[in-house]
From TrEMBL:
The keyword Amino-acid biosynthesis applies. It comes from the Bacteria. Keywords: Amino-acid biosynthesis, Histidine biosynthesis, Hydrolase. Pfam families: PRA-CH (PF01502). The keyword Amino-acid biosynthesis applies. This is phosphoribosyl-AMP cyclohydrolase. Its EC number is 3.5.4.19. Gene3D superfamilies: Phosphoribosyl-AMP cyclohydrolase (3.10.20.810). GO terms for biological process: L-histidine biosynthetic process.
């Protein structure tokens, strides 16, 4: 199932994601991680106070996993850390922007055809007939 979702061509958007986030029991904010040099959006995640404090203290992007209900230090298991440059806050103080530098190869947990982590999670676009097309095979 995950392979088809992550690599397939069928569009299966999860419009119920925010309901799932609300049910995780944590107070969280959406966080966008953006590569500071290129401006590429890498990841959309969520942070609670603990994740933000860890990020600021350790200068590494950290999120709150709303599906596992635990701290998610990006790169702790994969080695694909996102080194923090700065944290920005939007006008309504209800979302964050982590400006980061990719420490190794990429930020996404999926792999390209060379078996390397993709730079970011936004590696497909909606093409003709609503089918997904890879931007970086």
């Amino acid at each position: 199932m995950a392979k088809e979702l992550e690599e397939g061509r069928k569009l299966e958007l999860d419009f119920g994601k925010l309901k799932k986030v609300a049910r995780c029991g944590e107070e969280v904010l959406p966080v966008v991680a953006q590569e500071v040099g290129t401006g590429e959006v890498l990841i959309l995640g969520y942070a609670n106070r603990q994740a933000l404090d860890y990020t600021l203290k350790n200068r590494v992007a950290c999120f709150w996993s709303t599906s596992r209900n635990e701290l998610w230090i990006k790169g702790a298991t994969s080695g694909e850390f996102l080194d923090l440059v700065e944290v920005r806050v939007n006008c309504e103080q209800n979302s964050l922007l982590y400006l980061v530098k990719v420490r190794n190869v990429g930020a996404c947990h999926t792999k390209n055809q060379k078996n390397e982590p993709r730079m970011g999670c936004y590696y497909r676009k909606i093409g003709d007939q609503g089918r997904l097309e890879n931007l970086n095979p």
